[in-house]
C-alpha cells in the first residue's frame, strides 16, 4: 500500500502538475446517509487527484475509474486479460475500454496542457478513483473530501458521443416464501417459484409504466429504464416444493425521477401483486435495496465547459458531436449530486466492450479522445 501510494503520484506528477493520494475512510463513508452502495467487500480505497494550475475563475475535473469488473471465464479469452496487447489497432484486456483508456486520456490531456505552456485561468483536476463498478465509493469520497469544480468530464466509453443525461439503476433483492411438500403431492405445498411468477408479471408492468414517457435523448433505446432479474435461487431439492426464493435484480431510474420514487413504485407494485393472492397477502414478499444505488442525472449541455467540449469535438471531426442519453449508471451522478459539479460523459470506446470477454478498444479512438479532451480543456481553461 505504501509503495502504491508513493508510485501513483509520481506517475501523475510526471505530467508536470502536483498530485495527492489519499485513502478513503471506508467504514465512516459506509455509515453516511447518502453512501452510494458497495458490492465488493473492501476495507480500503486509494484515490488520486492530479492538479494543474491554481485556483482561479474556472475549474474543470477529468474523472476516471481504475477499478474493473472480474474477467469471468479466463479460458474464454483469446489472450491473457492482463496482457494489454495491441493487435490490428485494438488494445485488448480487462479494463482497456472501461476505462483505463479514459484515465489515460485525462492524464495525457493534463500533460499536453502543461507542455503547451498555455496560461490557465483556473485549475484542472484529474481524478483517478476506485469503486465505480459497484456503487462509486471513490467519487463519493472525492466529493466528501471537497473536490469540486465548475464542470467535469467523466471519461467513460461513449464512442465519443456527449452524454448529458443518464438513467439511474437500483439493485434489489426479493425474498418470497412458500411451503415445502413432497413433489408428488405438490398441491399440499406452495411453490415460492410460482408465487414469484405472479410478482414478476407485475414487475413487467412496472417497467412499462416507468418507460411510458422516455426522455428525448433515450428515444433510440428499445427500453430506456430496464428492470431485469439477474439472479434467482430457490428450493433445496428437485423433488421438494420450494419453500423459499431469492431474486436479485436492478430497476432503472428514469431521468427526472428521484430514486426514492422508483423504490416507492416498486414497493407498491409488489404490494399490488401480493394483495391479489391469498398466500402472498399472508406472507408478503420482502424487498431489500442493496449494493449499487445509482440516481438518475441530467445537466445542461449548453454550459460553457460542455460547449467547449462540443466545439473541440466538431473541430476534430468536422461534424457536431452526437448527444445521447445513457441507460446505465456511472459516477456522473455523484459529481453532480455530491460534489455540486455539473458533469457529462464523453470518452473513447464502446459500452458494448465494457465487461465483455476479449474486451478491446481502438487505439486510434483513444488518441482522438485525447486530442478532443485536451483541446476542450484548453478552450475552457486557457486564457
Ligand atoms: Zn466504467
Describe the 3D structure.
With 383 residues, the chain is of the alpha/beta class. Helix content is 33%, strand content 24%. It has ten helices and 16 strands. It has helices at residues 2-13, 26-30, 96-116, 137-144, 192-210, 259-275, 278-282, 304-317, 332-337, 363-381; strands at 18-23, 46-52, 58-65, 86-87, 90-92, 122-129, 151-154, 162-166, 168-177, 227-234, 244-253, 286-294, 297-298, 323-326, 343-345, 360-362. A six-stranded mixed β-sheet has the order 1-2-6-3-7-15, with helices on both faces. Helix 8 crosses helix 10. The chain starts with a helix and ends with a helix. The chain binds zinc ion.
Key descriptive features of the protein:
383 residues, alpha/beta, 16 strands, disordered N terminus, binds zinc ion
